[in-house]
């Protein structure tokens, strides 16, 4: 399916300064930019943050087409959001909200585009390891993050494929034609994922084997 090949924020190998930046510096930088975009309330500082993130995007070898990719799945949400904010606060207020959202989305995608997923997960494991004394499991935490980063783009791609297929058949207004195939696809994706986790001893609670079925 075409949509399933689409991975939001997929890693793009490169040798740019952003790629070579140590993760211990890059992660706080991009998280700080996203937090700053949400913390400040004026449109001008948020616009500056967006420009900084865009500059880093192009410094990492990105292009305009890649800027549009993460927005394709949320264009309807953005349209409704901007229209509502223009009605409530005017164009300046709408841009302030949109700029904060774009800064966070582009900063997150830049992090994933310039950092191998395994390297990012290894850092998350190291960050969570001190919490083991409180019962935290760093490996399972990293596994959950990895599954989330893979599953969300799959579901987005599945919905895109189903929507295009329904539109080609003139059924784009039918909830059944849109929702049911996505649910089937999600279940088909989840079952082999669950089987793979169970094969690695992660299927039962606390890694225990599932209870045996009674005879007969």
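^ structure tokens above, recovered residues below v
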């Amino acid at each position: 399916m075409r949509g399933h090949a689409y991975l939001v924020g997929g890693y793009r190998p490169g040798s740019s300064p952003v790629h070579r930046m140590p993760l211990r510096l890059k992660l706080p930088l991009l998280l700080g930019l996203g937090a700053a975009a949400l913390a400040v309330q004026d449109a001008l500082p948020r616009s500056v943050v967006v420009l900084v993130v865009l500059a880093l995007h192009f410094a990492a070898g990105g292009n305009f087409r890649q800027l549009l990719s993460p927005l394709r799945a949320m264009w309807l949400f953005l349209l409704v959001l901007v229209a509502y904010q223009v009605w409530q606060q005017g164009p300046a207020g709408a841009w302030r909200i949109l700029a904060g959202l774009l800064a966070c989305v582009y900063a997150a995608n830049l992090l994933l585009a310039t950092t191998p997923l395994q390297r990012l997960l290894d850092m998350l494991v190291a960050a969570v390891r001190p919490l083991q004394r409180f019962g935290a499991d760093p490996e399972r935490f990293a596994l959950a993050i990895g599954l989330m980063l893979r599953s969300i783009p799959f579901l987005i791609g599945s919905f895109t494929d189903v929507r295009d297929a329904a539109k080609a058949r003139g059924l784009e207004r039918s909830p059944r034609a849109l929702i049911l195939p996505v649910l089937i696809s999600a279940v088909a994706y989840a079952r082999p994922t669950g089987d793979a986790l169970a094969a690695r001893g992660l299927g039962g609670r606390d890694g225990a084997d599932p209870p045996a079925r009674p005879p007969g």
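Helices lie at 17-20, 23-39, 43-59, 64-72, 75-114, 117-128, 138-168, 175-199.
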